[in-house]
Amino acid sequence: MIGGGPAGLTFARVLHRHDHPVTVLERDPAPDARPPGGTLDLHENLGQLALDKAGLLAEFRALSRPEGQAMRILDTDGTVLRDWRPRPDDRANPEIDRGQLRDLLLGPLDVQWGRGVTEVVPGTRDGVLVRFADGRQETFDLVVGADGAWSRVRPAVSSATPHYTGVTVVETSLDDVDTRHPDLARLIGDGSVAVYGVNRGLVAQRNSGGHVKVYAQFRAPLDWHTSLDRHRGVNRRAGLDAGLGAVLGAGLDLADVEAVRSRLLALFEGWAAPVLDLLRHGTAFVPRPLYVLPVSHTWAHVPGVTLLGDAAHLMPPLGVGANLAMLEGAELAESVAAAPGPGDLDEAVRAFEEQMWARAGRWAKFTMAGLERLVSPDPTEALAFFDEVQPS
Ligand SMILES: Cc1cc2nc3c(=O)[nH]c(=O)nc-3n(C[C@H](O)[C@H](O)[C@H](O)COP(=O)(O)OP(=O)(O)OC[C@H]3O[C@@H](n4cnc5c(N)ncnc54)[C@H](O)[C@@H]3O)c2cc1C
Predict the structure, then answer these.
(1) Gap from CA of 121 to ligand 1 centroid (Å)
(2) Nearest atom in ligand 1 to 322's CA
(3) Is the C-beta atom of 319 inside 6 A of ligand 1?
(4) Residue 120, beta-bridge partner list
(5) Which residues make up the binding site for FAD (predicted)?
(6) How many beta carbons lie within 10 A of that of residue 139, not counting itself?
(7) Which residues of 96-105 are buried (b: 16+ CB within 10 A; e: fewer)?
(8) What is the tens place of the pLDDT at every residue in 251-260?
(9) Measured distance CA(108)–CA(132) in Å, rounded
(10) In contact, 150 and 162? CB cutoff 8 Å
């Protein structure tokens, strides 16, 4: 198994439950080598099903935040347009911090940290050859690439590479929101608050311990921060309003926190003051241009190598990527554990791939269409999208 994200750890944990040997090779030098990222909602029929297969559902329920399913949508002037609150017994999509989920999955697993893979070569005499960044190499019977968007395993089965969606997210955070920013704590509530404007949006999500992640999202060319003049024409062709191009501008140093803050405040100029406070009080700003793999990405089966999660079907972050990754990890692990011999193993992997492609293809279409509507020239599309997907 290459990669210790949600896909890789769920795969390994389910195999471990079946007393099946598995080696997890992870590039990060340690579990907490980088910030784990924001909160994840795990759906009953996807991520929670995977945790059930790993025997971890009860522990998940004890850690997760059902109240985090609350969702409020504001107009740019601060008017509350929608305010969804979960019923007390609603367990459809509870939230969990990524770090908590990682630790839950890690449990007794023996992960080899600091083992970045550079290349995978199938079909050698001794099996599938894996080359590592430190110059070492090893062979395996089956290599599962769960190494995310920029997978180094993917080239062994497919020539597809991720492409930019035209939407960039800039992430910032607030700490101790209940004590330091009680007004913002009330605005965000127990779950999330979202505001949508023309080709842009602001979303704030509560994590545990009073931590909040704020995502400013907007349509812009990939190098929006470096060259204004080149972008004027691109923005026009992409149907962007002139204001967006002018605001984003040239020569922005992304490491300069105050410069990024003031550009973002200009981008959201005119929005209600409490909404802008989400940016005013944000700490560091991390740009995350959204990349995707082609919708319905498949490949000709290669014996001994397969992909899971973002490595197989990177899609816009509309709340399903980790869920699919985990369910695929659990399902592949069950198939591998049930296969009596090497020939059966290959057949099991083939069958798994067909099932994964069909399901992921449907979700990729849904999330691509969702992104178009959430970051859209017509903000009423975002509201209509939520009206369709939120349980009433
Ligand atoms: C802003 C944002 C919000 C999101 N919110 C949600 C949400 O609410 N719900 C949801 O379901 N999904 C969400 N997603 C999507 C979700 O994060 C991903 O789909 C999910 O993390 C995919 O899991 P994975 O295990 O396939 O890949 P990853 O989580 O990317 O894990 C890959 C692992 O492989 C390791 N790795 C990478 N390269 C190598 C290498 N060469 N050698 C060895 N190891 C390597 C990495 O260090 C990492 O640990 C969100 C994404 C973003 C960007």
Answers:
(1) 23
(2) 11
(3) yes
(4) 130
(5) 41, 98, 310
(6) 14
(7) bbbbbbbebb
(8) 888 889 999 9
(9) 24
(10) yes
Give the whole-angstrom CA distance, residue 247 versus residue 219. Answer: 12
Q: How far is the CA of 37 from the centre of ligand 1 (A)?
A: 9
CA of 325 to the centre of ligand 1 (A): 8
| Those residues with Cβ within 8 angstroms of residue 164's Cβ, 6 or more apart along the chain or in another chain | 222, 289, 290, 291
Report phi then psi at 368, rounded to 5: -65, -45
Query: Which amino acid would we find at residue 71?
Result: M
pLDDT of 298 over the 60 cut: yes
Joined together, the tokens standing for residue 80 give 């509350």
- The predicted model gives 152-168 an average pLDDT of 98
- Residue 28 CB: number of other CB atoms within 10 A? 16
Cα separation, 185 vs 283, in Å, equals 16
Question: Is residue 152 lining ligand 1, measured as CB closer than 6 Å?
Answer: yes
Least confident of 22-36, 121-135, 215-229, 345-359: 215-229
Sign of the CA dihedral with 15 first, then 20, 26, and 30 last: positive
User: Which residue, by CA, sits nearest to atom 51 of ligand 1?
Assistant: 317
* Residue in this structure with the two tokens 């591998």, named with its chain if needed: 336
Q: Which residues contact 351 (CB under 8 A, 6 or more apart)?
A: 335
